[in-house]
Description:
eight-stranded parallel β-barrel; globular; 41% helix
Amino acid sequence: MANFMFCTGIENSIPTINGGRTRVDQMEACGHYERWREDFDLVEDLGIRYLRFGPPLHRTLLGPGKYDWEFSDLTLNDLRRRDITPIVDLCHFGVPDWIGNFQNPDFPEHFAGYAAAFAERYHWVQLYTPINEMFICAVFSALYGWWNEQMTSDRAFVTALKHIVKANVLAMRAVLERRPDAIFIQSESSEYFHADSPAAIGPAEIMNSRRFLSLDLNYGRRVDSEMYEYLMDNGMTREEYHFFLGNRLKQHCILGNDYYCTNEHRVHQDGRTWAAGEVFGYSEITRQYYGRYGLPVMHTETNLSEGPRGDEAVNWLWKEWANVLRLRNVGIPTVGFTWYSLTDQMDWDTALREQNGRVSPVGLYDLDRKIRPVGKAYKQLIADWRDVLPAQSVCLVVPVVPPSHSGRIDAREQEQSAGEMLGRTPSQAQSSESVGR
């Protein structure tokens, strides 16, 4: 049984821009390919035992059934040696050139094959985020026109979304066939849209319904009537919709959600949006998502740039942690927290749309691997709270098998452990898959 999951991550975004001609690779830009051992040392120094990490998809999945595992073997085996539990992020905002982009209907099957091969090779890995921020990936690629296919229509968005979520579902199925106690931690953006005037209430309501689409489909939840019409009007077929209803795997999932100060939006009556800043905050918006899905929660991403005073990120860390404790104290099972990422990132001031070489100072460490004030604060927070939380509430304990123990339980014990996560026996968990909500 694992303690509360204090976590950080290695940023592995790989979208393409410039009509698909330019690959934006954050692991390369931030020096992780050369400094991965040093980065893992920093994770250990912080006292962190969980790491959001994944091999770069475009360098690993070379073609159908063709893989290059060299970097994955080096890094993942080193994490295993250190007994750091990876939450493996298999697809982060981009696909290999040979797949093209998220409009490709063959992507789900290709990705499921990759997930199956990964799970076969790294049998000791239990925690997965198959596809990171499915909603944001579809929005930025096919509605805003920023990444990958760079399209700007509702039809392109629905096409990208259905392919992305289907790929996520098929990947979960493939992993579960090889590791029955696998746990899937969605990392999905938690959004809210505020009407700026009475005339903006209609557009805001549509956006507040649309924000749930990726998770509704992923968890096999029937969408509301307006969103059903939206999906059907923009190219989803009844057969495609019923695929999601018939593959309900939520009993294997933790609702990982991300929150930044840009996640709340003001909506104009003509549908234009702009950043609202923190209005409701993480705990209130997470209550909305928890009320909809009823799954254990993990705060899977947050950060803030270090500003001129030097304490801006530290204060944001304190605020987000206070929100996590608030959820816990009102009875919402909250199992983990993540400052994302370990090091500073590059060019997120333009959402990776431009390669300007500008540092986003959001890491626990800068790109010279010198600790930032927020890194020191997070290290202290972990030391203060790590041994307190599990003793106070059983809802903060998840049946995670650390890498050092991964060979000590057989498949039946794995399945039993997975079913018990939500208080179900394996037979109950299996039968619940076909029950609609």
